[in-house]
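Why this split exists: single-chain examples teach little about how molecules sit against one another. For that reason, every record in the complexes split bundles all components of an assembly together and asks for one structure covering all of them. Below is a record exactly as it appears in the raw files.
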Amino acid sequence: MSTFIRKDLPTLLIAIVGFAIVAEWFFPIKALSDFKSYLGLVVTIIYRVSIGIGTVYATTSEYAVWRRNPTKQQTIISGSMFAMIIIMALVCVFYGGLDAGYNAQYRWFQYNIYQPQSQAMYAVMFLFQCGSLYRVCRARSMESTIMLVAGGIFILSCIPLFASYVPGISELGTFVTQGPSLGGTRPANMAAAIGAIIVGLRSLLGKEQSTMETT
Amino acid sequence: MDEKTQKSIWDKMGSIDYRIIYATFIVMLSIPIFYPLGIPMKISTPVQTYYDAIVDLPPDSAILVHSFVDLSVWADTGPILVATWNTLWDIAEEKNIKIIAYVSIPDGAIKMDDLIQGELKPPQWRIDSYGETWVDLGYIPVVNEPVQASFAADIASVCPTDIHIYEIGSEWVGTPIYEIPVVQEVAARGGDPNKLDAYDFDLYIWGSWGCTSPDQWVRQFWTTGNPAYELKMVMMTIGNCVPNVMPYYGPDKPIVGFIPGSAGAAGLELLCGHMGEGIVMADIGDLAGIATVAVLLLGNLSYFGKKFFEKEEEG
């Protein structure tokens, strides 16, 4: 692939589209507004196509992982799960047609496998968080003491019982989030905003190395 | 065992087996499922302002609703969505409030379909006036910033046709959205009946359990636009994300109210008068919170006990 197609053409497209969107902000004429709306549709199409490409990549990589199972038992167990998902997907797509997501088979899969499994993952994450809180959140230094006090106040303010019946705990929780927390968040946001403008301009001018690499 | 190698009470307190901690949490979380406790609670300010923002809307207002469904956190966020829609359905017909809704993940489309046909069945006048007073556009992937930007600038650019599948309004499936009367009416508020954008709404109800989402939504629906959209929002989220919402929360700020997880949903249920799973989940939140505070105290008691008392003994 030539350098022009690999590097210069994407940069040129980014620059044309980017400058057109910036220009629309300064000169809100209909042609530019329509162009911006049209780009919205393009973004959606790219997003949806990327889901499809992602599915293909995930399936092939999962297949490769499955083939690397060291024992026969593991191969059979993980292979049966993998095969079940593939069969389910094929049934949904080819049996259900365009309404695949709404047929009884997919609903059964969503409510009886996908939802309990994803909720269990979330619950396990919560248990790990609580377990680590016990080991890690100790007042070992000035910094960890501040974190412990602020975190403790915030946790208490989030528990309905404490928030309702411990005087001032809600206000203290609000103070932690709107005072020290906000003080840290705002400068970080400002720095990120300034950085985003610089990265944006550099991308439009074809000077941003990270954009070059992804294009 | 040697006396010196024997574990002190402080050591024991600080090295409880993880399995015991997990088991304690599981027991605590299970109690309200089998025996709802009904622990009393008060309604917090963000929940009250969330409710007020919806019910105090002036007549003829328009609401954009993101039906926030994520099955992995459904236990925590589902009650918020249910209570929110119950609040919306309770708005009197005379107020002529228009509702345009969507979901942002494919699972959500199926879940909302089931909810609308069951637990969240609209009042008869809403069913009769589907497409005229409210519409659900179905799955629109408004999750990343480029799509959000396009969505805010022109909803049809990311959702050219109505793609919902409810039996209630199946006649509209595949209809270009500007041919749907309620879309035309809401779009006309901004002057152009063929352009539905963030300027046309009075309130945006949305949800996310991504803690950086408030930054994103505020950027795309409040500060963007020329002039800025400044679309007032209320948000459904989880307790962990509250610190990220707070910078944008206040009566004159982008987010005028928010519901922090199922405990907040319980408050909304009390306000709208439709009791649901939020109340049970609030009990679970209470017990889980008490257990969390207990392990936090235990860990620190052990640390300080070892630091001060064992030193004294050595001295």
